[in-house]
Amino acid sequence: MTATAEVSTGSRGAQPPVPDGAITVTLKIRRFNPEVDDEPRWDEFEIPALPSDRVLNLLHYVKWYLDGTLTFRRSCAHGICGSDAMRINGVNRLACKVLLKDLLAPKGKQTTITIEPIKGLPVNKDLLVDMEPFFEAFRAVKPYLITYGNEPTRERIQSVADRERFDDTTKCILCACCTTSCPVYWTEGSYFGPAAIVNAHRFIFDSRDEGAEERLDILNDIDGVWRCRTTFNCTDACPRGIQVTKAIQEVKRALLFKRI
Ligand code: SF4
Ligand code: SF4
Ligand code: FES
Prior knowledge:
This protein has a five-stranded mixed sheet with strand order 3-2-7-5-6, covered by helices on one side. Strands 1-4 form a two-stranded antiparallel sheet. It has a two-stranded antiparallel sheet with strand order 8-9. Mean pLDDT is 94; it is low at 1-10. The protein is of the alpha+beta class. It is 27% helix and 17% strand. Strand 8 and strand 9 (128-129) form a beta hairpin. It is built from eight helices and nine strands. Bound molecules: iron/sulfur cluster (2 copies) and FE2/S2 (inorganic) cluster. One iron/sulfur cluster binds next to helix 7 and helix 8.
């Protein structure tokens, strides 16, 4: 279950002892509280941290010891659940997968890390965005096995080669890093976005599925695959290493040549 670091009473715990080898880093966080702010603002926090810390650890430090009102989403803390996507130094990343050692300024300079909510989705508070438009697009492509006719009496057999055909797109954790790094999605929020297409791909190319035509019809829409301009931002952003743009191209080809 995804936990959301919600508004707390603001009470702070006693700060823990600073560990040996810690350095001081500045976290510059984009804040927005719709109850009091007209516009987003920046807050800065000075934090002792180890190079082996993840950005999520630094956010926890702020939340637990400096400002209990900081709001963000996270759950597994191990790159599995996809709930802590955010813009870290201008790049979409999972906060639990980014190590401080990879963000350090050159020796002798102060390290500043900027953290903002992912772009293109409404901000509820601070780093917490409303994921509903993202999941609406995901649901619209029917991301589940569709079959017609009688129930089988045994499991649906698939060859290793047929399973391999869509292996890459099974790895999606619905973090939204791809969709919210897409310039087309930023300007035209009605575009399905790469994550929805990836999840359509996962079933379109599944030999057991019989719903490919329906999904291809859906993605042939004005807001479908043809909006993609092949800029590869989505592929670069994916924390699972999925070849997102390639999957989109394969769906385009399936539409053009009517061959799956
Ligand atoms: S390749 Fe297509 S979907 Fe991916 S970021 Fe670029 S325009 Fe968006
Ligand atoms: S394709 Fe990659 S970046 Fe996009 S939602 Fe899935 S895991 Fe996240
Ligand atoms: S908290 Fe689950 S992926 Fe980062």
